[in-house]
Design goal:
The complex is a heterodimer of chains A (342) and B (320). Chain A has 342 residues and is an all-alpha fold. Chain A folds into 2 domains: 66 residues; 250 residues, MetI-like (MetI-like fold, Orthogonal Bundle). In chain A, 72% of the residues lie in helices and 1% in strands. The longest helix of chain A is centred in the first third of the chain and has 34 residues. With 320 residues, chain B is mostly helical. Chain B folds into 2 domains: 49 residues, no CATH class; 219 residues, Orthogonal Bundle (MetI-like fold). Chain B is built from 15 helices and 2 strands. A two-stranded antiparallel sheet of chain B has the order 1-2. In chain B, strand 1 and strand 2 form a beta hairpin. Classes of the chains: A mainly alpha (342), B mainly alpha (320). At the A-B interface, helix 1, helix 2, helix 4, helix 5 and helix 6 of A face helix 1, helix 2, helix 3, helix 5 and helix 7 of B.
Chain lengths: 342, 320
């Protein structure tokens, strides 16, 4: 409690000092002649934010990109893309990259489709609000907390209390390798039903983590898509109905094209979140058992192994993967707008 | 999901779309669009979505033996509930996790970080909306472009900066600030990484305030500070409130920044939860309660302010 008050006091003092400083500079600038007065005022409003972005984002970004070109020796040695080469040539890190791409593809498609289904079928339903709120609930829970919650679902021996095991055990005739005996260690075993993935392919446990991601991100996507579906003009729906279209036809021929831009946005948001997947992995497996992702390896490499060069290369790789997603999103958004305009 | 860096729509050149995301109004047609099988799909999904959280919630009230030996669903025919798990994780006595300490850590990280980032962003939003200067649009696009930079790209350098001071070509830009045992670096980190997002949201709102009011004030000789204080600030309350709620939940739920900058004493509760879960081989039963303690604050915000929360979210993720 004392620390809390202490911190709030620090904040009050810090903000107070900042505020007073800004007002003082502002007042001083008011005495400047003509154009300089206006410039001074603009600076007071703009400089704090620009300073924060410059020091906290821009310079560190450049620094990280440069660091990624240095091999971790003492002193660090400039070797172009050696770190990137290491990520791809080492089996464990290559698996990390492949895992991450699996997160993007499976996570994004499943989230978007599920969210679209919920948004569509819940639209106009009796308990729509309550249903959507429950689907949305995981969005208020931290991703780390979501990971912990699902560790109980996937609980395995010595604690035979997991829902997953209970369900697979109750399915008659399911082989033990698929969890039929209820003693599968879900988060640890990469193989499933006797099929063992190669060393650089995602294991079944990775898919179990992706399920958590879908569970956590479907709510946000549903809310966004649902708002878009409600934005489809009634006149359009009515016209289609008058022409004799069924609900299914209306959904595929009217609603879907109309909310196309929003669907792309949702897919993009989910893709970027999947590219940066960290919390769920850290909370559930810590990246062990072949389930790591780039952001998780990044943390371990830099802050546990102290290999700044290699870790920076991983961060840059995440960034490089985000860029095309954003570019594609912009393109399709523009196309969608043109279609809408036509 | 870290929505702060997610917003993909970074160009402002495109014309604003029609106001698609207004409050849902009563729809006569919608009802006839939903079908019976469709409703069942929704009910099943809602059930699947709720079960995991509900299970852990129930487990958190069961005693150690029960949690470790039987599934939580047995509670329906063997009801036996206790508050012991919560007592253990909140207290510091005999092996407790003293989570109340880390809960307060989260409060003293989240509240100031939210206020600082939103405050600084509101100033910038005003400048980008209502001050004329050369290269304004260009600068704004540059700021918004930073939205797509993943957190990880800046984090290493920033943490090293706090630990060793900043040096450039042999000169010391600023020395080791000795902030290792303070929450200030966490505030700064959240402010830095959230800044483009906050500016993006607030600029959209502030620039849409009616031009006539601002211009009338200007004609009357009001200075920028007056306009900001007496017009923009009060008129922006809805947007500021939405953003604050959003930032609060986002910062509270953050793991990465807290883990890196928290040290051992200043860890936020989410980071502590993950730390505890790694070393909790034998006391699973406590993890259930710990998880719920960490979720209390965002869940309260979620249930009491859902409308604002969703609005902030829509504003953040959808162009407009």
């Amino acid at each position: 409690m004392k620390e809390l008050l202490n911190s709030l006091f620090t904040m009050a003092v810090g903000l107070g000092v900042l505020l007073v400083a800004l007002v003082v500079v502002y007042t001083l600038a008011s005495f400047l002649p003509g154009r300089w007065k206006e410039r001074g005022h603009i600076a007071v409003f703009l400089i704090p934010a620009l300073f924060v972005i410059l020091i906290g984002l821009f310079i560190p970004m450049i620094h990280t990109i440069i660091t990624s070109l240095y091999v971790d020796k003492t002193p660090p040695q400039f070797q172009w893309f050696a770190n990137y080469g290491e990520i791809w040539s080492r089996k464990d890190t290559r698996l990390t990259v492949v895992n991450n791409l699996t997160w993007v593809v499976v996570g994004t498609i499943a989230t978007t489709v599920l969210a679209l289904a919920i948004a569509r079928f819940a639209d106009g339903m009796k308990n729509e609000k309550a249903a959507k709120a429950l689907i949305f609930l995981p969005a208020a829970i931290s991703l780390a907390g979501a990971g912990i919650i699902w560790r109980f679902v996937y609980a395995s021996p010595p604690f035979k209390v997991g829902l997953m095991s209970a369900v697979t055990k109750s399915i008659p005739g399911l082989p033990a390798s698929c969890g039929g005996e209820g003693d599968r260690i879900w988060l640890l075993e990469r193989g499933m039903c006797g099929i063992d993935p190669p060393a650089t392919a995602p294991g079944f446990n990775t898919f179990l983590l992706i399920v958590v991601f879908i569970w956590a991100s479907a709510g946000i996507s549903t809310v966004i898509l649902s708002a878009a579906i409600k934005g489809v003009p009634d006149s359009l729906v009515e016209a289609a109905r008058v022409d004799g279209a069924t609900s299914r036809q209306i959904f595929y021929k009217v609603t879907l094209p109309y909310i196309r831009a929003t669907i792309i946005t949702v897919a993009t948001l989910t893709t970027i979140a999947a590219l940066k997947a960290y919390d769920i992995v850290a909370a559930m497996t810590g990246g062990n058992f072949g389930t790591s992702t780039l952001a998780n390896d990044y943390y371990n490499t830099i802050f546990l192994q102290n290999r700044d060069g290699l870790g920076s290369a991983m961060a840059v790789l995440i960034f490089l993967l985000v860029i095309p997603v954003v570019v594609v999103n912009r393109r399709s958004q523009r196309r969608a707008e043109e279609l809408m305009g036509a | 999901m870290s929505v702060a860096e997610l917003t993909p729509d970074v160009t402002t050149a495109a014309p604003p779309p029609p106001p698609v995301y207004s409050e849902p109004v009563g729809r006569s047609l919608a009802a006839s669009l939903s079908s019976k099988p469709g409703r069942w799909v929704v009910y099943i999904l809602v059930f699947l979505w709720t079960i995991p959280t509900f299970g852990v919630f129930v487990s958190s009230f069961r005693d150690e033996v029960a949690v470790k030996t039987t599934g939580w669903w047995t509670v329906f025919w063997q009801p036996h509930l206790t508050l012991q798990n919560y007592k253990s994780v909140l207290g510091s006595a005999n092996g407790g996790d003293n989570l109340s300490h880390f809960f307060l850590n989260s409060v003293r990280i989240t509240v100031p970080a939210t206020i600082i980032s939103v405050g600084v962003a509101l100033l910038a939003a005003y400048a980008f909306s209502w001050m004329e200067f050369k290269g304004r649009d260009w600068l704004f696009v540059a700021v918004i472009a930073m939205l797509i930079v993943p957190l990880q790209l800046g984090l290493v350098t920033l943490s090293r900066m706090f630990n060793n001071g900043a040096h450039f070509l042999g000169f010391t830009v600023f020395p080791d600030l000795n902030l290792n045992n303070s929450v200030v670096p966490i505030w700064i980190a959240h402010t830095c990484f959230g800044m483009p997002f906050c500016i993006f949201i607030l600029k959209n709102f502030v620039s849409s305030l009616p031009r006539e009011i601002i211009e009338a004030a200007r004609v009357d000789g009001a200075s920028h500070l007056d306009i900001f204080r007496k017009l923009v600030l009060p008129l922006s309350v809805p947007a500021v409130a939405s953003l604050c709620i959003f930032q609060f939940v986002y910062i509270w739920n953050d793991l990465l920044i807290g883990r890196i900058f928290g040290g051992s004493k200043n860890l936020p509760i989410i980071a502590k939860l993950v730390e505890v879960s790694g070393s909790r081989g034998q006391s699973w039963h406590l993890l259930t309660a710990a998880a719920f303690v960490s979720m209390v604050a965002p869940l309260i915000v979620f249930f009491s302010l859902q409308r604002y929360f969703v609005r902030g979210l829509l504003a953040g993720s959808v162009k407009g």
